[in-house]
């Protein structure tokens, strides 16, 4: 029979693989391999993506047509569709970022993480690959939602560059949330447990804010929380970038007046804290 | 315990490995050595610490104490170097079920840094050797249990590692697939791979392993070749089944006189007695019983099996 281990044509000599690329390069190259693997799964199980895409469309249609007439306090000249759609973008990309956690929890449950950890690949590759493929999914989600938004009356009233900046900030913030979800997912060990916990975090985060209603309509304490919630400032930033504010310059607390700066600050803090924490957790995690 | 010089050329050396989870000592000071090119079976019941030991040896968990060297490299100091020299396959086939067989192996090759072209070539070659070429482009979700295990094993040897760790490689396989897997493993060992495998199946340890370490409650409670371990629980025994219940007493007297050892029984018509002379002793006993007019239903020479070893050892320590 054919030799298994060492047919000379292609079998690498033991321990003689190309020297591992240095830290950063290896993390990116290996991360790309892992991201590709995740995207193959998205292609093979389109139902997963379907759910991710359908729920924001559902939200857009429900809120636009069911609550649209009843929600007041909007800036003059701004339709509810214009107000709502950037908010739905935020909600959806933040929800989209939770895939990072459930994906890792599932990989751990199935033992794939042990396989990866026994390979001489970069220690960060699985996390980089995971967050990258989830970012790509979010890009797709944003495209679908934009089309849906345009169909129900949302308009971009700003320059092309501003619009691009708006989409970029949405995706950047979602990417930072991905790293938070990575840590939670690694601590959970089962996708179901992760789902429960992430809902408890994500729901208040996206509802105590200005995604669906302007925050100055909220009761005092809730309003303060909503104003300092980075999800709100992201929605405000998006509305600014897409020209959905009716030209009004908001005044009040720091995050209300500087939503873009405040949101970017959060992105930096989240990445600075959760990239190292998730990486450390990955290095010590193992399926039971 | 320090690593001594005679261990220097062994593929796997572990000394005094301890791993605690809270108050539980999953490993309570395990020593083992696997000489290069040999097969060691880590044998033990569920929860004995086999998987934990494999995870320590394969860099997945850090022990609380002890020294470990694999393929000449210190596992604690240079885990990444160890990973380049080992192949690992876990208790649950760690293949990605959404990827095809080819995609799984190609991905692993890329992550071993074989390079894009060589990773593809190696994937095709392994699929052929493991008779998975026809299924190469199907998601591995559609594979049978045996095919999945073969793919998993193929994944472990993508980089032709000199040392291979397999955690219960045949658990849950049907007998045909198990024999199949044994053949593949024998081929790998013949080609020079050092193999450490864990198993609950004594037959598997008996068939594949040069050395066996019996592990229970986180301790190595016995070590040796299959024959050495068998001789620890005693030599051959002759077992007879008397046809007529009334003759059991007479048979017992004949056995005691002919063999000289203590006669055991199962409470029924089945008697056993230890013998020194193997088949010759059995013939003498049958003759003596015949002379005494005892009718037999069945008679046999029984060698101790690894089951006896296992039950004796693990029974004694628990």
From TrEMBL, chain A:
Occurrences of domain ABC transmembrane type-2 (ranges): 47-285
Entry GO MF terms: ABC-type transporter activity
Organism from which the protein derives: uncultured Quadrisphaera sp
The protein's name: Transport permease protein
Chain spans, region Disordered: 1-23
Keywords: Antibiotic resistance, Cell membrane, Membrane, Transmembrane, Transmembrane helix, Transport
Pfam families registered for this protein in UniProt: ABC2_membrane
UniProt topology in membrane: Multi-pass membrane protein
Chief site of localization: membrane
Skewed-composition ranges (Low complexity): 12-23
Localization, UniProt: Cell membrane; Membrane
One Gene Ontology term, aspect cellular component: ATP-binding cassette (ABC) transporter complex
GO process terms (BP): response to antibiotic
TM segment ranges: 48-71, 83-105, 126-152, 164-187, 194-213, 260-279
Family: Belongs to the ABC-2 integral membrane protein family.
């Amino acid at each position: 029979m054919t030799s298994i281990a060492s047919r000379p044509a292609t079998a690498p000599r033991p321990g003689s693989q190309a020297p591992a690329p240095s830290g950063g390069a290896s993390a990116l190259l290996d991360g790309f391999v892992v991201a590709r693997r995740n995207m193959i799964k998205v292609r093979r199980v389109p139902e997963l993506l379907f759910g991710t895409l359908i729920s924001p469309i559902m939200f857009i249609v429900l809120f636009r047509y069911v609550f649209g007439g009843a929600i007041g306090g909007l800036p003059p000249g701004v339709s509810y569709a214009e107000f709502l759609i950037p908010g739905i973008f935020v909600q959806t990309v933040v929800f989209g970022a939770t895939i990072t956690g459930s994906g890792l929890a599932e990989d751990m449950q199935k033992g794939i993480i042990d396989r990866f950890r026994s390979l001489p690949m970069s220690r960060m590759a699985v996390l980089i690959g995971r967050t990258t493929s989830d970012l790509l999914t979010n890009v797709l989600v944003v495209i679908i939602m934009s089309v849906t938004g345009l169909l129900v009356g949302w308009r971009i009233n700003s320059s092309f560059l501003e619009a691009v900046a708006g989409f970029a900030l949405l995706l950047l913030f979602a990417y930072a949330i991905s790293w938070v979800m990575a840590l939670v997912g690694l601590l959970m060990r089962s996708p179901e447990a992760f789902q429960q916990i992430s809902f408890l975090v994500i729901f208040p985060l996206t509802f105590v804010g200005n995604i669906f209603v302007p925050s100055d309509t909220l009761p005092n304490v809730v309003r303060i929380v909503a104003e300092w919630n980075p999800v709100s400032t992201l929605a405000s930033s998006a509305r600014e970038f897409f020209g959905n504010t009716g030209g009004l310059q908001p005044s009040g607390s720091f995050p209300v007046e500087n939503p873009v700066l405040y949101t970017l600050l959060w992105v930096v803090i989240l990445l600075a804290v959760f990239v190292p924490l998730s990486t450390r957790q990955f290095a010590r995690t193992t399926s039971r | 315990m320090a690593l001594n010089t005679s261990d220097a050329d062994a593929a796997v050396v572990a000394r005094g490995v301890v791993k605690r989870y809270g108050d539980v000592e999953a490993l309570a000071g395990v020593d083992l050595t696997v000489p290069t090119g040999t097969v060691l079976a880590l044998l033990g019941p569920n929860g004995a610490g086999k998987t934990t030991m494999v995870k320590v040896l394969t860099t997945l968990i850090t022990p609380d104490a002890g020294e470990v060297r694999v393929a000449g490299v210190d596992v604690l100091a240079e885990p990444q170097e160890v990973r380049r020299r080992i192949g690992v396959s876990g208790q649950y086939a760690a293949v990605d079920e959404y990827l095809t067989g080819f995609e799984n192996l190609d991905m692993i090759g890329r992550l071993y840094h074989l390079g894009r072209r060589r990773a593809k070539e190696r994937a095709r070659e392994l699929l052929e050797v493991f008779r998975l070429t026809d299924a190469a482009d199907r998601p591995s979700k559609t594979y049978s249990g045996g095919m999945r295990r073969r793919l998993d094993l193929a994944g472990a040897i993508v980089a032709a590692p000199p040392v291979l760790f397999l955690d219960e490689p045949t658990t849950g396989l049907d007998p045909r697939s198990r024999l199949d897997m044994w053949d593949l493993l024998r081929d790998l060992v013949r080609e020079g791979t050092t193999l450490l495998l864990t198993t609950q199946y004594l037959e598997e340890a008996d068939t594949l392993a040069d050395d066996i370490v019996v592990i229970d409650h986180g301790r190595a409670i016995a070590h040796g070749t299959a024959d050495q371990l068998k001789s620890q629980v005693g030599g051959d025994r002759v077992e007879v089944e008397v046809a007529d219940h009334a003759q059991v007493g007479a048979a017992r007297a004949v056995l005691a006189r002919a063999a000289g050892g203590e006669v055991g029984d199962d409470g029924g018509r089945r008697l056993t007695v230890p013998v020194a002379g193997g088949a010759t002793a059995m013939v003498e006993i049958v003759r003596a019983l015949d002379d005494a007019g005892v009718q037999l239903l069945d008679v046999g020479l029984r060698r101790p099996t690894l089951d006896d070893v296992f039950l004796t050892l693990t029974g004694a320590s628990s």
